[in-house]
Amino acid sequence: MQNILKKIILVVFFFCLALPSLALDKKQILVVSRCLLSKKFNYEILGEKDNLRLIQVNKLATFQQMRLAARKECQGFMNVTASWHQYNLQGQNGVENFLENFKLNSHPSDFTRRYKIKSQEKVPPLFNEIDSLQMQQQLFQLTNLADRYVNSAEGMKAAKLIQQWLTEWIVDSPRTDVEVSRLATLNHDKQPSIVLRLGPKDGVPVIILGTPFDTLKSGRMLQPGANVNGSGTVTLLQTARILLASNFTFDKSIYFIWYAGSEAGKLGVQSVVEQFNRQNKNIDAVLHLDQTGFKQKNEIGIGLVDDATDAALTTFLADLVAIYLKLPVSAVRCGFACSDHMVWYQNNNRVAYPVSTTRDEGGTPFRYTDKDNFEKVSFDKMTDFVKLALVFVVELAML
Q: Is the pTM for the entire model greater than 0.90?
């Protein structure tokens, strides 16, 4: 009886938490960088600290249109509707204190952690298993949807596709240490995040590889989202498939996560972090994969994001790129809340975020348009990221 009562209390708690923002066309509370805001757009400033502002908007869709006209380094934002209401319910006050945790350099890197490369002979055979044709087929299916928006039927269809592919691979896999599930996106109903666990379930450190898979909502313009956010989605799918088919034994839990609702303010990853915190997961490292398919003309190398990331883990990633991929790296500035890794960083986790260009915020010029299509991505570039993700897992989690 007590267990049933506890479950009811939890359900009521999260329902109440969701009440202020059950629909994206209602008032939303956002954290944005100052340079994003425009006098042409109506919003209410609730408070500010340094470069950040907490604002209230009446319609997220209208805000999105204004956002797309801003400079790329200004476009990121966090939808904090639920956490802001919870902050106030707990009797806390002060916008400055609330915004403090969103600063890009609010958490120092942990240089006490030493990373050592130890599996150079074991990893390369996995590279031969990369199936570029399969990656193309999957990206074609995803970009053939009108959009993958968090609250659209097509967005739900994309989530089902990802789960279907994973389930098929699990059936064909010899492994028993694996599980796939959906995680609801709190406050925004239709599209769940998809979570695949590989390795031990409890009592061990956790390695996370994550990517967003949604797009903006289509209207006058289709949103194929080939690079944003299809390339990372397919990169992570291919990584998962290869490791599912391997006979490697891992001493850590490896979670592959496809985040819902990234373009609505990093909603899915916030729900994931909330759940992992409730479960007291011991997060060892986070690798974020996003926009892995764009290739600048005559550009060779991989960019490593140096804001809202851990310097020690990023240095380790640079070593992996140099040794396994034989490519140069360059530090890249991404900007406030440019992707979902920001939420893990806020949570004091070690995060690394490689990107497909070595230029600051130099992603595809076609993002958020119908020209971000299948023909515009480089599968050679995506293959490099599959290799890097495989190496990351094996070096950090293999027995």
A: yes
Q: What is residue 321's DSSP assignment?
A: I
Among 288, 229, 278, 213, residue whose Cα is nearest residue 255: 288
The angle subtended at Cα 333 by Cα 329 and Cα 334, nearest 5°, is 115
Render each residue's pLDDT in the chain as its tens digit; 399 residues. 444 434 433 433 343 433 333 456 678 999 999 988 877 788 999 999 999 999 999 988 888 888 888 877 788 999 999 899 888 887 777 899 999 888 877 677 777 777 888 888 888 899 999 999 999 999 999 999 999 999 999 999 999 999 999 999 999 999 999 999 999 997 766 899 999 999 999 899 999 999 999 999 998 899 999 999 999 999 999 999 999 999 999 999 999 999 999 999 999 999 999 999 999 999 999 999 999 998 877 788 999 999 999 999 999 999 999 999 999 999 998 889 999 999 999 999 999 999 998 876 556 788 899 999 999 999 999 999 999 999 999 999 986
Question: Which residues neighbour 396 within 8 Å (Cβ) at sequence distance 6 or greater?
Answer: 115, 207, 252, 284, 285
